[in-house]
Write a structure and sequence with these properties.
Layout lengths: L2 H28 L2 E3 L12 H15 L7 E3 L23 E2 L5 E3 L2 H4 L30 E3 L17 H4 L8 E4 L9 H4 L5 E2 L9 H6 L2 E9 L2
Parallel strand pairs: 5-8
Antiparallel strand pairs: 1-8, 2-8, 3-4, 5-6, 6-7
């Protein structure tokens, strides 16, 4: 390619950039659901529900959707005199759409039903990017939820929330598969919110443990308003 042609193409791209940026910003402003492009980096220690919500809000703000109130899709278990919290009760009423304007669920019932539109192609990050799934390197499809299939919390006892999102060593967290694919063709493997508990040599809740089974400490974030 000649230097002149290179300059012309670069100029054309630069000329188109403002319109493209405006379109992307408009899409981001309407976004009401995303899968985080990254986690806080401390495994299952998210700083509790408040810390997880803040992570969602920060990423949404950077993407131009910070005017909404964002909540992480996470449950907690009853402990220390505090009642359980259900993920499904934290996220508003819907409908929710991704960064490209595609509706992933009409309401809470639809989200937890067989007809929801959560797939690898629709569970986009706040940047509108597809997150790596099974078969990609690295696989990042394990998403922290601590929830049962209907979006409710697990009973007190066996840890499924990395000690209510405060542990980066001992414990376990229930995760879902954002790409709806697992080792087998069964309901847990296809579940977006309740596939299997985390595990690993550090105790189950470290960042390394989450990565070892195909995760990265990622979260689903929903606009609650």
């Amino acid at each position: 390619m000649t230097p002149l042609r290179t300059i012309m193409i670069a100029g054309a791209l630069l000329g188109a950039a403002p319109g493209l940026i405006a379109t992307a910003s408009a899409q981001s402003a309407e976004m009401s659901f995303f899968l985080t492009s990254n986690g806080p980096g401390k495994g299952g220690d998210l700083g509790g529900l408040a810390g997880a919500d803040k992570h969602c809000q920060t990423l949404a703000q950077a993407a131009g959707a910070g005017a909404k109130t964002w909540r992480a899709y996470l449950s907690t278990q009853a402990a220390d005199g505090q009642p359980a919290v259900n993920a499904r009760d934290r996220i508003g009423k819907g409908p929710w759409q991704n960064a490209k304007g595609v509706v992933v669920a009409k309401d809470v019932a639809d989200l937890h039903g067989a007809s929801n539109n959560l797939t690898k192609q629709t569970a986009l990050s706040e940047k509108g990017e597809v997150i790596n799934g099974r078969g990609d390197t690295p696989n990042r499809h394990d998403v922290l939820t601590g929830s049962q299939a209907d979006g409710t919390a697990f009973a007190a006892g066996e840890d499924r929330t990395c000690r209510n999102w405060t542990s980066s060593t001992q414990g376990a967290a229930m995760v879902g598969h954002s790409d709806r694919i697992g080792l087998r063709d069964d309901e847990p493997s296809r579940s977006w919110n309740t596939s299997h508990p985390s595990r690993g040599p550090d105790g189950g809740c470290s960042q390394a443990d989450l990565k070892s089974t195909g995760g990265d400490g990622l979260l689903y974030c929903f606009a609650a308003n």
